[in-house]
Q: What sequence folds into this?
């Protein structure tokens, strides 16, 4: 009977809370009505908007390859968590939407494979487009928690404004740790964002 009761709990999609179940059972044989279940934690839906710098400076010292690998890993992680993801790139080709917002799929990381680099760094335009994308997602009833991940070496003279729609903002700094210009850290302090050194 115990195995049948446990099977029923698995079918219901929640784990058995054994101590409360045993207390409810008392000395009687275990019955279905004795089962007590663990409360299911409801997780806020998340949209991870990844903004990838593909400018000319990112081609130096393998930074772009590392950043693409980082972005691919993030997409795969989002897929495992059941989160949504969007991917923008910016460089000499301007700002390009590589993945529109939607449920993350591990296979979508392959979209990064052909991405090349070169040219200037239209950072402000990329962040403005990411902000519009997040605002639209919130308006249409998408995930209520928006994360923006900026993967860059910070090698631009632009002084962009922080995206307003992102509740969580993380700058992943791919600049050379031995000759780091410190721009990503300055932006992070100004935007109250998290600053992570990718190459430390």
A:
């Amino acid at each position: 009977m115990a195995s049948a009761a446990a099977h029923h709990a698995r079918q219901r999609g929640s784990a058995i809370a054994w101590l409360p179940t045993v207390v409810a059972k008392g000395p009687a044989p275990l019955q279905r009505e004795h089962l007590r279940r663990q409360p299911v934690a409801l997780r806020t839906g998340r949209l991870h908007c990844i903004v990838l710098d593909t400018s000319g400076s990112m081609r130096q010292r393998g930074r772009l390859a590392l950043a693409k690998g980082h972005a691919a890993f993030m997409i795969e992680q989002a897929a495992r968590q059941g989160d949504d993801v969007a991917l923008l790139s910016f460089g000499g080709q301007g700002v390009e939407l590589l993945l529109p917002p939607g449920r993350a799929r591990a296979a979508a990381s392959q979209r990064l494979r052909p991405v090349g680099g070169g040219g200037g760094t239209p950072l402000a335009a990329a962040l403005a487009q990411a902000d519009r994308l997040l605002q639209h997602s919130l308006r249409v009833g998408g995930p209520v928690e928006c994360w923006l991940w900026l993967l860059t070496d910070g090698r631009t003279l632009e002084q962009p404004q922080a995206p307003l729609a992102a509740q969580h903002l993380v700058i992943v700094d791919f600049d050379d740790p031995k000759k780091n210009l410190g721009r990503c850290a300055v932006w992070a302090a100004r935007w109250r964002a998290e600053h992570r050194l990718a190459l430390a």
